[in-house]
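Researcher: Please generate the 3D structure of the following complex. Treat every line as part of one assembly.
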Amino acid sequence: MNRNFSYFLKEGLRSFKRNLFMNLVGISTVVISLAIVGVYMVASRNLNSLLELWEERVEVIVFLREGGTSKDHLRLQQRIAAIPGVKEVRYISKEEAWRNFARDPSIRAELEDLGFNPLPASFRVKLGRDISSAAVINASLERLSRLEGVEEVLQQETAKRLLRTVQRIRIGILLLGLGLALASVFIISNTVRLTIYSRRHEIEIMKLIGATNSFIRTPFLIEGAFQGFSGGVLTMILFFLIDWVWKNLTSRSIWGWESFFPSWISFFSLYLGVLIMVIGTAVGMFGSFIALRRYLKI
Amino acid sequence: MEAQIFFMVQMYHVFKVFGKIAALSDINVSIDKGEFVFISGPSGAGKTTFLRLLYQDEVPTSGQIIVNGRNLLRLTKSRLPYFRRNLGIVFQDYKLLLNRTVFENVSFALQVVGISGRENYRRTQEVLSQVGLSDRADAYPLQLSGGEQQRVAIARAIVNRPSLVLADEPTGNLDTETAWQIMHLLEEIHSSGATMLVATHNQEIIREFPHRAIVLNRGRTVQEEIKLE
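Model: Done. Output below.
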């Protein structure tokens, strides 16, 4: 294997050149499939940051029963913080609630007319990302409302619904991604199969003059990997350029429309680029492997 | 055991059936080491099948085949490539790799068996000069004449110094003069020690070269002509 490695590498690359046309077809297919996967990844990443923004805002307010001491409240705060899915708990005392409301002069007047502070102390509870299912959300909210000293939990339904929606979108994105990944593996391996079909005579001859299967396979795998890698690099360059153009568009105002292109959308990251190259290389090799299996059985 | 060392090829009651058509029926043949034997007969007689059984491109429907002391029935799939390395096969349609040069086509056969670098270069040059193609080393197969392509095919077959050379209609597509040159080349290879099996329907060649001929007709051996050299 070692002795032959340089042969395989040379042979893989030479054969890439010899079959340039078929290889270019292969690379184009890889680029197209990877571009689709890339668009998906960009879209899902941007959508994900949007979802995170939504999640940030999911908040329930827990009103506390009158008469608790600050010690009780502190204990309660710790217990709430310990509930799974709770990201942040902020205590708002009766006085702070008063101050918040009193900012509006008309409400202030009415409050002052009452002669006492009717506003309960409360916790603002943020539910975080690690809430992984609707069941967990429900259970958490359920536990919140059953805690001793809790009067009422506000915005339960809204929070539940929002988080459930976010969750469904996430699952949808994941399924779509899986579908696209499968489709691109299928398309790429089919193309590689075509390039190998056009060379079945070569494989047949190799077999007849006593080449072992691994000897035949290795250059094809290297060629497939090279195909996938080149496709990956081209796709990466493509996305880099799109991102560059986009950034230029968003940083410049065109005809005074400054916010026409939302700048929070990004098309490229090192992570995305490397991922696309790795996927391309792996799929190229895998495609060769699958396609060769048939011809090596001869 | 001794017999196995003496014979290069032995076939016992070999049948090969494709669907309902018997390509070969009850073939019993033995070929000595170092012999030169023609397989002759009209087209469709089973000559190609006969050879394909020997390099196990086909497996007999029944019967036993022993090549160079090895029972092909017992040859596992993983050992098959190593078995074929002891054979030199010249195909009817040459089977050259069209996108590789003459040199690459030949050196490739050495690469397959793990001979690379300087040794590969030396032996490829040597065999190309033996078949008279040293000056065509960088040409591609389609730039060559039929006779030259056949020489490349022969060079590739013998570069591994096989003990058994199988040639299927090596003169089939060639004019008489070129055919004669090819036959002399095969004679030369034979005289250097290889056992030679040549399938041909060309009676003239069989008459001209004084070797035993196994005559096939409709898949059966009809006669064996033995000529004395």
